[in-house]
Design goal:
By secondary structure, this protein is an all-alpha fold. About 90% of the residues lie in helices and about 0% in strands.
Amino acid sequence: MDGLGLRLSDLGRREEALAAATEAVGIYRRLAAARPDAFEPSHAGSSKNLSIYLWGVGRREEALAAATEAADVSRRLVAARPDAFEPGHAGLLINLANCLFGLGRREEALAAATEAADIYRRLAAATPDAFEPDLAMALQGFGNCLSDLGRREEALAAVTEAVGIYRRLAAARPDAFEPGLALLLSSFAAARTVGGQELDQALAAIDEAVDIYQRLVSHRPHVFTKNLMTAYQFRAGIVKGLGHHHGAAEVKLRQGNL
């Protein structure tokens, strides 16, 4: 049923995907009650999928309940076999943090995001090739939570570390990691704009993101044009804040040429 839900979701049939995911969670919940060792991993994964589908149709409190269930099940698995289940648990914590963040439960979101980043940091220290990308993306979410709580310097430090990781990865494998680098540069620029005090640094970061997206669009326009447009719009706001009206007009011209 999980596989069916994913296929339906890919086709935009969200309500049907939600129905399939709901059924899958019910099945795995019953199976896990009888044989937890065999079925709790699937119970956790199906609960995560259900949370995503529920969020997608605007049922946010139910999405949070499903995300919490997934993380709770996973926590039991980690307690018994951390080596096997910590990587998956960190991903479930990020999903939980996203739900909490979206519902304005800031401190709880930060706690989940912190735990996820801590897990990925341990894993990346032991196996950097496998887990550094996950650590970088976890740091982005961690930084967003900090920024939302007004802890600007800590947020900036987290996103700066994430950009540094992805810059190294993209230097070695640009095809695989340049999209993530552009995303993180946009987050870095956003962190710099808080308070309107470091707009020059923000502009440099978003310019680098725009350059990357322009390269990506030249090869895969159907995938990255929307990202490029968003980066242009963000850049226009920064330029306006700096009083560079000519630059803002240039951004609009570029958008019109896409």
